[in-house]
């Protein structure tokens, strides 16, 4: 069989041509990077967990009417997605101060923000993803006015939903990053949620202990990365109770249940 065509390779994922026009296959790697790829590593089993966690969250978002690129999960590391024109903006939603907002504005990590803040960053590794405003987005035509309205609206809906979802499993959603894409329906452009939602792009703190259950474990050399990602999956009900470190249990469990 001919090797399928690779469309794009990012830091944590690879995109391959999909089985039908307008589709792609999103492959989740174990590679991890931080600080604009100055720090590189591998978190063994991360790709499997992120594929499953992102599938779960995108499916739930679809059920509440948030349009997403997710079609279905194909196997442990791959999912079928809709091809989109990616909007070159990283949308960061913050509920609690941490990371760059704490450093930049001198706000202690863990401080509840007076209101949810949405920030935009221009997706450009060579430039280190600089922060931008609506003005830059409009001036350089990265997205239209109406599209930006839809993006902000969707980001808030996703935040409200995720805050509740995570609060229900004892996790505080500190902040997260979203990416959006444009699809064309009968010559009419529409914004849908793309990329992934996983502990790679979220800050998730245990509500009781403030323990970090996300990529900050890797960024800050705290160790226990895969265990933290597993804990998130377990609380979301995606791992069999009592799973103890065997990431692949996830797949065995599902296969044995014929799902
Ligand atoms: N984030 C991300 N990709 C990026 C930058 C940030 O997924 O390229 C996520 C990050 O995991 C965190 C949120 O966006 O949940 C806010 O990140 P921040 O601006 O604090 O940057 P960082 O401290 O990660 O450099």
Give a verbal description of the structure.
It is built from 7 helices and 14 strands. By secondary structure, it is of the alpha+beta class. It has a domain at 85-206: ATP-grasp fold, B domain (D-amino Acid Aminotransferase, Chain A, domain 1), CATH 3.30.470. Strands 8, 9, 10, 11, 12, 13 and 14 form a 7-stranded antiparallel sheet that branches. A 5-stranded antiparallel sheet has the order 1-2-3-7-6. Strands 4-5 form a two-stranded antiparallel ribbon. The longest helix has 23 residues, at 145-167. It is globular, with a radius of gyration of 18 Å. It binds uridine-5'-diphosphate (UDP). Uridine-5'-diphosphate (UDP) binds next to strand 9, helix 2, strand 12 and strand 14.
CATH fold-level label of the domain at 85-206 = D-amino Acid Aminotransferase, Chain A, domain 1
Spell the H/E element sequence. EEEEEHEEEEHEEHHEEEHHH
Number of strands: 14
Q: Look at the helices and sheets and give the structural class.
A: alpha+beta
Calculate the mean pLDDT score and round it.
Answer: 94
List the ions, cofactors and other small molecules found in this model.
Answer: uridine-5'-diphosphate
Strand content: 25-35%
What's the multimeric state?
Answer: single chain
- Return the CATH class of the domain at 85-206: Alpha Beta
């Amino acid at each position: 069989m001919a090797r399928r065509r690779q469309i794009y390779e990012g830091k944590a994922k690879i995109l391959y041509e999909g089985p039908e026009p307008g589709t792609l296959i999103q492959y989740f790697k174990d590679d991890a990077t931080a600080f604009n790829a100055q720090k590189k590593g591998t978190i063994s089993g991360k790709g499997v967990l992120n594929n499953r966690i992102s599938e779960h969250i995108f499916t739930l978002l679809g059920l509440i009417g948030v349009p997403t690129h997710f079609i279905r999960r194909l196997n442990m590391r791959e999912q079928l997605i809709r091809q989109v024109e990616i909007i070159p903006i990283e949308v960061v939603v913050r509920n609690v101060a941490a990371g760059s907002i704490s450093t930049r504005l001198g706000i202690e990590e863990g401080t509840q923000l007076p209101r949810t803040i949405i920030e935009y960053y221009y997706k450009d590794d060579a430039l280190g993803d600089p922060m931008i405003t609506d003005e830059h987005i409009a001036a350089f035509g990265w997205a239209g006015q109406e599209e930006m309205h839809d993006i902000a609206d969707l980001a808030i809906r996703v935040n409200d939903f995720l805050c509740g979802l995570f609060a229900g499993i004892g996790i505080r959603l500190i902040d997260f990053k979203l990416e959006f894409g444009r699809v064309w329906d009968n010559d009419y452009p529409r914004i849908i949620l793309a990329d992934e939602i996983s502990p790679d792009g979220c800050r998730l703190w245990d509500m009781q202990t403030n323990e970090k259950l996300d990529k900050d474990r890797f960024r800050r050399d705290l160790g226990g990365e895969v265990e933290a990602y597993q804990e998130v999956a377990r609380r979301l009900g995606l791992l069999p109770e009592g799973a103890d470190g065997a990431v692949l249990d996830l797949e065995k469990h599902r296969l044995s249940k014929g799902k």
